[in-house]
Design goal:
The complex is a heterodimer of chains A (about 290) and B (about 100).
Chain A lengths: L1 E6 L3 H12 L4 E5 L23 H14 L3 E4 L2 E7 L2 E6 L3 E9 L21 E2 L2 H4 L8 E4 L3 H10 L6 E4 L16 E2 L3 E6 L3 E6 L4 E3 L2 E4 L6 H8 L3 E2 L2 E2 L12 E3 L10 H19 L3
Parallel strand pairs in A: 1-2, 1-6, 2-3, 6-17, 7-14, 8-9, 8-14, 9-10
Antiparallel strand pairs in A: 4-5, 5-6, 11-12, 12-13, 15-16
Chain B lengths: L4 E2 L5 H6 L5 E6 L4 H16 L4 E6 L4 H6 L7 E6 L2 E7 L4 H8 L1
The chains are: A alpha/beta (about 290), B alpha/beta (about 100).
């Protein structure tokens, strides 16, 4: 069992890991090589660099810095977090880990599904949590919107309640080396979700219509916000609410970086990473 | 000061539909993370609001009631007044939001 698992290997996650590791605690950092930093071609406003540095370079240097301090950093995608009384189970595409605490530091997804009707039918046929709401769609027609391992994971959960599960990739491709074979998928771009009282059909740009009973949204890689929604963590304006120790309303789950809102700056992510790392160490060592 | 009542299909009519005071019903399930957060909030509302009855329906045991009241996502709070639905609130909400939005 790990003392802490950090989801996300950007400036918040790596900074937190360094402080946790320095307290002689067992920490694991898991993340994909996707980061908002890749979009920063030149960084000139971050302390200590004589010459401008690219976001990609800074991201790689951070990971290397952690590795040089013997911190385990895994390149994997987290698809689920389960709160199991006194521990958390972190599921990735390739493995499963247990930890006493978790830090959500995946950054903030900037590619949320902007499909007409999604917001309108939230809670009325549109859900973000297969494990919570799949139950209500036993033997019904279920759609999952998404195209990555996260969507595949949600589809797998939903397969337990209905054979009729279709992944709608919304114009994107499913991963080539996916973890399971998916037979029911629609690759057309989605125009809208329609219905009266509840969502009842998905309409593609080419006007093809699919009758559905329930839609589960699982776009891209699961973000800190997605995990928060499933775990029952409070959000405010789609940012994770944390206390002064960067802890969420679930004891043992912390959040840092872009996902808590405020300035989307590296310096702020580093500060919150540091703060969360120190808080986690303090909690686990009962200081 | 009172605790939420566990509502089943056996006592639903008596506790909810025939109640003389408004009844706030929390549809929940043990496997649902947001329900786990909302549970203690609903307990607090029950304790602090003696003018209403607060009940909980475990949808895992009482699927028929969930279907009857069109619950397709949890947690869902429904406020009944004189046997009819007065308001519905779906998803995780803070205590303040619940008090502001449902009553």
């Amino acid at each position: 069992m790990y003392d802490s698992i950090i989801i996300g290997k950007g400036p918040a996650g790596i900074s937190s890991a360094i402080y946790i590791s320095r307290s002689n605690l067992k920490v694991l950092v898991i993340g994909k090589n996707e980061t908002a930093l890749n979009k920063a071609h030149v960084i000139e406003n971050y302390y200590g660099f004589e010459k401008p540095i690219t976001g990609e370079e800074l991201f790689e240097k951070g990971i290397q810095q952690a590795k040089n301090q013997n911190i385990k950093v895994k390149n994997d995608e987290v698809i689920d977090i389960i709160w199991d009384n006194d521990k958390f189970i972190v599921k990735t595409v390739n493995s499963e880990y247990e930890s006493k605490t978790v830090l959500l530091a995946t950054g903030k997804s900037r590619n949320s599904a902007k499909i007409e009707g999604i917001k309108e039918f939230e809670g009325r046929g549109v859900s973000y949590c297969a494990i919570c709401d799949g139950f209500f769609y036993r033997n019904k027609k279920i759609a999952v919107i998404g195209n990555g391992e996260y969507a595949i994971h949600e589809a797998k959960i939903l397969k337990n309640v209905s054979e009729d599960v279709t992944i709608f990739t919304n114009g994107r491709e499913l991963p080539q080396n996916r973890s399971i074979e998916i037979t029911n998928f629609v690759e057309g771009k989605i125009d809208s979700i329609r219905g009266k009282e509840k969502a009842s059909k998905i309409v593609l740009n080419d006007n093809t219509e699919y009758e559905i009973d329930g839609i589960f949204v699982a776009e891209g890689t699961a973000s800190s916000i997605d995990f928060a929604k499933k775990l029952g963590i409070f959000l405010e304006n789609n940012n994770i609410k944390v206390d002064e120790n960067m802890q969420t309303n679930i004891p043992g789950i912390y959040a840092a970086g872009d996902c808590t809102g405020g300035l989307l700056q590296i310096s702020k992510a580093v500060y919150e990473g540091t703060k969360s790392g120190l808080s986690i160490a303090k909690k686990l060592k009962n200081i | 000061m009172s605790n939420p009542i566990e509502i089943t299909r056996e006592n639903f009519d008596e506790v909810v539909l025939k109640s003389e005071v408004p009844v706030l019903v929390d549809f929940w399930a043990p496997w649902c993370g947001p329900c786990r957060t909302m549970g203690p909030i609903v307990d607090e509302i029950a304790e602090e609001t003696p003018s209403i009855v607060v009940g909980k329906i475990n949808v895992d045991d009482e699927q028929e009631l969930a279907v009857k009241y069109d619950v397709t996502a949890i947690p869902t709070l429904i406020l009944f007044k004189s046997g009819a639905i007065r308001n519905t609130l779906v998803g995780l909400h803070t205590k303040q939001d619940i008090l502001n939005e449902i009553f």
